[in-house]
Amino acid sequence: MSTAPPPRAWRRYTPAQTVIHTAARVALAAITIWMLARLGVTWEYVADAPSQVADLLGRMFPPEWSFIGALVDPLVQTINIATLGTAIAVVLAIPIAFLAARNTTPNRATYGLGRLVMVVSRSVDTLIWALIFIIVVGPGSLAGVLAVAVRSIGFVSKLFAEGIEEIDAGQVEAVAATGASRGQTLLYAIVPQVRPVFTGVCIYRWDINVRESTVLGIVGAGGLGFALNEAILGLEWSRVGLILVVVLGVVVISEAVSAFLRKRVT
Amino acid sequence: MLEVSGLDKRYPTGDHALRSVSFTIDGADAVFVIGPSGAGKSTLLRCVNRLVEPDRGTVRLDDLDITALAGKALRDARRRMGMIFQEFNLVERLTVMENVLSGRLGYVSLWQAWRRRFPPDDIEAAFVTLRRVGLEGFENKRADELSGGQRQRVGIARALVQRPRILLVDEPTSSLDPRTSEAVMALIVGLAAEDDIPALVNIHDVPLARAFARRIIGLRDGLVVYDGPVAQADAAVLERIYGGAILAETERSGSGPL
Amino acid sequence: MTATAARTWRPPSPWGRPWVGPVVWTAIIAFLVWNVASLQVDPARIARGFSRFGTVAAKAFPPSFERFGILATGVWESIEMATLSTLFGVLLGIPVAVLAARNVVPLPVYAGGRLVITLARTFHELIVAIIFVKAVGFGPLAGTLTLTLNSLGFFSKLLAEQIETIDRGQIEAIRATGASRAKVLIYGVLPQVLPRIVGLTIYQWDIHLRQSTIIGIVGAGGIGATLYNAFARYDYDFALAILLVIVAIVLVGEAVSAIARKRVQ
Ligand SMILES: Nc1ncnc2c1ncn2[C@@H]1O[C@H](COP(=O)(O)OP(=O)(O)OP(=O)(O)O)[C@@H](O)[C@H]1O
Ligand SMILES: [Mg+2]
Asked: Backbone phi, then psi, for B83, in 5-degree steps?
């Protein structure tokens, strides 16, 4: 009678790996706890939070529907800020994108310039741009439009430039070989290739900008956010509720419109 | 008349693609350039219309020194050379008509180009050329809706509508099946003969070259190793151009050396 | 036989009918013109803007790093908020993503999951921050909660889309062994999306870092409050210093995120 062989052990990880994994988890947990501790949580507030939220919702809903008339103007302003801001951004982004695309930029200096504009525009949030423009042009829609435009230039030109870099050089070469000028080659070989990308990006950014425009008014740059801020400062919670409902509607509709249009162009 | 002399090209990567290439095309015959992959065939063609800048040497077309031109003068010279590409290089999102009319871009203003307002003569010429390549009624189709053979026909029409003094043809059939290849090659050679212009044709397919060529230029490692009638391009010549491998290839395709 | 007149050709209209294009473009341009007009920009206002810009720029240069302590505290708070909220966001976001993936849960659950994602996505983080500040008071806790909720709209959405594109065959093979739904998730789904989870987590952190620089405007902690106060007190040189630091951390965050994401792929 032979004895059964000892049962073989199988582990997914070697002991060393297990130690490393455990150490990593412990470190992560320690960092988390340390950061949590530094948050300075006031536990009385936290304990009170559910009743606070319930109270807030109770005041907001049902919303004050009769206030809707006063929201038409801010609503239109919000859409206008987003649309005009996007339009300005697109116009300015087109030349920047051609500078910042490796295959169309004239030289290294222009490429660097294009990239620099992109980085500066993108690394500052729309709201911060709004704060800056409010100082220059005063509170109101104009500051909002400028903020949306300046923030969008970087985003739009980055995606445009990626679209330009993806074009088929053969088509460009073929048109150039007929004796077409630079401008004509641009119109006949490059524009047709980048057009769907450009259109899609414009619609996409417009959608994002509608959402951003709903809060610009909180810092004083016009639109629904302005009404929201006033309602909050005046403790008119049922109006706040209504504004939030309107914001929800605008954002959902603009997203649906954007998705529909983008499906059409590609 | 096309006169190429002492053409030399070394790419920045170090590839010496052309080494002092010289030849002359007189009259309206199609001249076929054959050679293994990387021999420099495409480079040669692109140096003729200066899509690639040669390092040394000259290219003359009807007494015009193309290598000395720049800017507007170079573009005017390019109008006189029609180019046909291996991958067709149609602008895929434009219609057939717009692609064909792009052969006339050198003759219209930027504004006309943008508004698609070509002179009536150009439009008429485009219709006629579409008919000649067998694409009557295709003018409003988009280029990306066409088959490979149809696309190359549009490419041919785009080159012909330029009313060129010469056709530069870079492996026009490599992306096509054998039957379509023959039809397309016959079309190019036939239409060039009708218009009484020469064609400089790069080609991989030796049997196809034999079927259509009278004169062959053999290129290997950037050097012209043969330039003469197709009839004299025997096995030894092919051996010189391709180095061994070609024998198996010709045998496989069933047509031995003529 | 008469010579036929030269044929004409017009490019086919992308809108189907030739008159639609001009109408659409006229409408768009008219809308934009009306838009510009309603902004009430006049030369005087522009001139005033430029002169004010000059004054502000003169006050802002050179940027002042005198109150470096306040600046550093704000920046560090932003980083903490971004990191914690990413962590919580991922822990909460993974289950939400699973519930919002059509190919692993039944339809009613899926609908619920999508609803959570849509609600979390719709409101701008600034609005959410206002609500949380009301609920738990001023400070970074409100900001952390805001960003955590934001993860359910971004991280969960992209992860759910990822789960929806995974290979069905692998799931079926695990299911065929008699494994329960949960086991199918662990053995069939998770291994396929794990690299993506890591990538998305890093990406989410990058985005939270950006957002953490603004929600302070409504009192939800981070460098945003410091910036807002500097603007409110006309401390433009300090504001410029804060701006430069924000741009720097956003760029560093983006670079770190790009490198890390490249390494996990
Ligand atoms: N744009 C380029 N940059 C650098 N080297 C190049 C470039 N184009 C071609 N070459 C090199 O030059 C040499 C000749 O290339 P060419 O394309 O002219 O050959 P070919 O005879 O047309 O080949 P094929 O039959 O494969 O098309 C090759 O060694 C190739 O690698
Ligand atoms: Mg070639």
From this structure: -115, 140
Output DSSP code: residue B177.
Answer: -
Of residues A177, A183, A188, nearest to B91 (C-beta): A188
CATH number at residue A75: 1.10.3720.10
How far apart CA A236 and CA A103 sit, in angstroms, is 56
pLDDT digit string (tens) for B138-195? 988 889 899 989 999 999 999 999 999 999 999 998 888 888 899 999 999 999 999 9
Rounded Cα–Cα distance for residues C86 and C80 (Å): 10
| Distance of CA A253 from the midpoint of ligand 2 (Å) | 52
Domains defined for chain B, CATH in brackets: 1-80+168-258 (3.40.50.300), 89-163 (no CATH)
Name residues with Cβ closer than 5 Å to ligand 2, which is an ion: B 42
- Using DSSP's 3-state secondary structure scheme, residue B142 falls into strand
Sequential DSSP letters for C128-196:
HHHHHHHHH-SSHHHHHHHHHHHHHHHHHHHHHHHHHTS-HHHHHHHHHTT--HHHHIIIIIHHHHHHH
Q: Pick from B235, B248, B180: which is nearest to B208 by CA?
A: B180
Q: Note the residue count of chain A.
A: 266
Q: Which of A124, A123, A111, A99 is nearest to C255 (CA)?
A: A123
Distance CA A155, CA C210 (A): 14
Average pLDDT over residues B207-213: 88
Q: What pairs with residue B58 in β-bridges?
A: B5
Count of all residues that appear for chain B in the document? 258
Q: Could you identify the atom of ligand 1 that is nearest to the CA of residue B13?
A: 4
Q: What is the pTM of this model?
A: 0.82
Residue in B51, B76, B82 nearest the CB of A173:
B51
Count CB neighbours of C55 within 10 A.
13
Contact status of A215 with chain B (Cβ, < 8 Å): no
Closest-CA residue, ligand 1 atom 26, reads B37
Kindly list the residues from chain A whose CB atom is less than 8 angstroms away from the CB atom of residue C87. Answer: 28, 32
Largest CA distance in chain B: 56
CB < 8 Å from C in window 215-234 of A: 215, 218-219, 225, 228, 232
Q: What residue numbers bound the domain in which A237 lies?
A: 65-265
Any atom of ligand 1 within 6 Å of the Cβ of B38: yes
Domains and CATH numbers, chain C: 67-264 (1.10.3720.10)
Residues in chain C closer than 8 A to B124 (CB atoms): 6-7
Give per-residue pLDDT as tens, C106-127: 889 999 999 999 888 888 899 9
| One-character DSSP codes across chain C | -PPPPPP---PPPTTSSTTHHHHHHHHHHHHHHHHHHHTT--HHHHHHHHHHHHHHHHHHSSP--TTHHHHHHHHHHHHHHHHHHHHHHHHHHHHHHHHT-TTTS-HHHHHHHHHHHHHHHHS-HHHHHHHHHHHH-SSHHHHHHHHHHHHHHHHHHHHHHHHHTS-HHHHHHHHHTT--HHHHIIIIIHHHHHHHHHHHHHHHHHHHHHHHTTGGGGTSSSHHHHHHHHHHTT-HHHHHHHHHHHHHHHHHHHHHHHHHHHHH-
What single-letter amino acid sits at C34?
W
Tell me, yes or no, whether A240 lies in a domain.
yes
Angle at B9 between CA B7 and CA B15, to 5 degrees: 145
| pLDDT, chain C, mean | 85
Q: Which of B90, B91, B106 is closest, CB to CB, to A179?
A: B106
Question: pLDDT value at position C5?
Answer: 55
Which residue on chain B is closest to A192 by alpha carbon? B93
Is residue A44 situated within a structural domain? Answer: no
Q: Report residue C62: phi and psi, to 5°.
A: -80, 155
Give the rounded distance of the alpha carbon of B168 from its chain centre.
3
Tokens representing residue A40 in the block: 């300075």
